[in-house]
Amino acid sequence: MLGCGVTTGVGAVVRTAAVRPGESVLVIGCGGVGLAAIRGARLAGAGRIIAADRVAAQLPAAVANGATDTVDAGQADLVTAVRDLTGGTGVDHGIEVVGKTATIRAAYEATRRGGRVTLVGAAGIQEEVSFPALSLMADGKTIQGSVYGASDPARDIPVLAELAQRGQLDLEALVTRRIGIDGVEAAFSDMTVGHGARSLVCFSPTG
Asked: Among 23-27, 65-69, 180-184, 192-196, where is mean pLDDT lowest?
């Protein structure tokens, strides 16, 4: 878990976005990396953490990992809902963890003027996103990518491990279920349709 998903999600918030205490954060996509990003926002001391997903069943895990608000993007307009939650201004940070044109645009539109949009989701090579030129200039937003949470494994994994040992980074809350090797195929099927977050393969009866 620390080798990939947690390092990517936490690093995107703490290192790439550099979220500061009291700032507001929107995380779009509540799978394994998205939940880790919510954990990262909590570690950073974010004031409001809004979690959004088109699969409503993902949202309770987002709350368990530190989200203060949730948006069922399958039922409500995401941008409108986020604006309503932030008094019309938008969030300080939009963290996109899906990699789709629509969610990238939503992250941009839900972020306030002068805010920062961080793209974590790996988009397909054919995916393209366009923005009005005047908006890019007038709104003063920063759009940046985050690969592997801008992390250095030798530097960051020991820090994350220590946080977990101290109880400041709850890895258990990021695990949807424990499976044996024979459950891997079903876990991949669940992942493709957005069910669950992190299936942990265990090779002992106790896990």
From this structure: 192-196
The single residue listed with the structure tokens 């393969």 is 201
Return the H-helix or E-strand segment holding 199: strand 199-201
Q: What's the predicted TM-score (pTM) here? A: 0.91
Domain 5-150 sits in CATH at 3.40.50.720
Residue range 50-61: average pLDDT? 95
DSSP 30-98: -SHHHHHHHHHHHHHT-SEEEEEESSGGGHHHHHHTT-SEEEETTTS-HHHHHHHHTTTS-EEEEEE-S
Backbone angles phi, psi at 129, to 5 degrees: -130, 135
Query: Concatenated DSSP letters for 142-168?
Result: EEEE-SGGG--HHHHHHHHHHHHHTTS
CATH 3.40.50.720 domain range(s) in the chain: 5-150
